[in-house]
Structure formats: C-alpha cells, structure tokens
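Q: Hi! First time doing this. I have a protein sequence and I read that you can turn it into a structure. Is that right? Here it is:
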Amino acid sequence: MDLENRVNHANLHGKLDMHSMGLKVYPLQAIQSFGIDLSDLTELDLSKNKLTRVPEAICSFQELEILNCNQNQICGFPTEIVQLELLTVLKLNRNDISSLPREICQLPLKKLFISGNHLKSLPSELGDVRSLVELDVSNNLLESIPCLSQLDQLVKVDLSRNALSMLPRDVGKLQELESLKINGNKLRKLPLSIRQLDSLEIFEVEDNPLIEPPLEICARGRVHMFQWMKEMAASGRNDPLAALGVIDLAGGGDESNDLDYDTVSDGSGAEPEQQSIDHVREKSLARLVHDKGSTRASSLNVSPDGIDAAMREIAAAEKLAAARVAQERSRLDEKVKADAKRAAFARKAEDARNMRAVRTTTETPTDVSAQEQAERERL
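A: Yes, that's right. Below is the predicted 3D structure, encoded as structure tokens:
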C-alpha cells in the first residue's frame, strides 16, 4: 500500500500505518500534499523503519493515544513529546536508546515498552507515572531501577535480562502486580516484601545467582519461595550472617526485619539504625572466624552455601574497611601537613612582627634627635 492510500485509510479509521516503509525521516511534506487533516489521529505505527529520532512532527497529534516506534534506530526524543497529552501506549522496543528523557514521565502512560535497548538506568520520575499498568524494560543494561512503590496500578513488570544486583525493598507494595519477570539478572538476594504480592501469578526468577532464597527453594516454585520468605521474616533472619547466628536481627518478625545489608536492629524495638556494612561485619567477624571451625558452626541449621556466602560478605566488608582505614590515614596525613604549614606561616608572621618591632625601637631615638636638632636650628 503506497503512502497516499495509507493516509486515506487513516483519515477514515484514525490509525496511520507506516510500518516497514524504510523511512529515515517522517514524510511530513508528502502527507501534507494530500490535503488530508490528520489532527484527530489516535494511533500511529512507525515500526520497522530506520528512524533515528521520534519525529517532532507527530507531537502535533493532540488526540494520539498509541505510538509504535518498535524496531527503528531511535536514540533521541523531541522535548515536544510532552504535548501528547492523551498518549497511553508507547512502544520503543529494539532501538538504540541509551537514556529515557524525563519528558516521557510526564505522559499519562498506561503501557511502556522499551525492551532491547541500551538503558543503564531509568529516570527517577518514572516512579511518579501512577497511571502505568504495564512496564517492559527487559533486555537492557539496567544496573538498578527507581522506586516504583507508588505505581499502585501496575499489573505486569518485565525486568528480565538486565544487570540488576538488587530490587527495591518496597516492591511488595505493588499489590495489583500479577506478573513479575526478573530472570537473567545478577540478583543474589530477593527482598522479603515480595511475599506480600498476593495477586502475583507469574514469577520468573531463573538464571540469577540467588542465595536468598536458596536455589533449591526457588526450584520448587513460588509457593515454596514465599513460604521461605515468611519464615525468614518471622525469625528475623534476612542476612547470611544472621543465618549463622552472628548478627542479631531481633524484633518484630515482619517488615522491621526486612533489612538491607547496611541496616541492623539494635534489638531495642526502635527503628533500625543505619550503619555501614563494614561496621556491622567488623563486630561479627571475630565470632564467625572463631565459630567456623567449632562444633557450633557444624551444628547450625544452615547450608555450606550459606556459610560461604556469609564469608564472602565478610571478605567484602574487610576490603571496604581497609579502604576506609587507608582513606582515614590519608586524611590524617593531610591534616598533619596542613597543621605544619599553618604553624610555619604563624612563625613567619611572628618573626615579621618582631623585626618590625626591632626596627621601630632602633629608629625612634634617631628620629627624635633629628627633630630636636631641627627645632634648635629654627629657634
């Protein structure tokens, strides 16, 4: 179908289909030459072309609800895209997008598809698009995702095949979520709040180096994973070291124990105090090293993988602590040098004041004698 026929069809049905036309730019002038008003267009399909930018010309389609730009070479967006105030579906799969502009987050999107691009991060404003129902950012390079807890209408989320090493702790607040795909990432630990996703029907976690829950639990399915999480939360053990009885996460048995590695409860029932990972590990290192070869370690109800994971955590903490010690030493050295410079400067200033005092003392009699001689001559 040639362009004119497509435009005529769009005039009748409100949908302009321009997929697979080999377009490098949007043919605005050609479309205008047909004398057809497309201002009430509701759907535009530009997929499978060679566009490098979302065309600025389409931002004048105030009634547009669906925009399909899949399988192009798009790497840029016009700021005018915010004018698409009715846009609810945006498809950007398989392009060359390395960053998502904040303007996208000002649209009333219900579905956002941006799989197969080069994204390493998402704008924090994405967490404010409360109309969002479906989000697909799979097959990117994402190392983290922003907080999505306010997106209480989300039903489907696909984060698969990225480089995620952790998920937001409050993911459990997405109560409408029915499908969560996080397979093919670098996740070692899942937040215990996931067990609160009562509507979840599809949960894909394979191809992650998980230790919490253990792989053998994950292999048994979602029900067993959630049961494991509930038991962990009830026991207050959401940390490899806590599983060894080294760190005490007592108190509450619910979300108060759903802690990150840099959070620990002091057992007082108060809000957990934020502490650095090396501080927590340093306090427990001696105990674990002492217990590792003892009967207590062998009698603990934990797997060897759990012990190894805890030791890896401690090794990482030791490395971080050593780096901080070196940094502190460097800071102290700089302070000593700065103090020495200030002392030297003070000595020079004192010497200069003393020299001026000496000159004033030696010059004063001469000046007085000269004044007396001048006075006598005048008389």
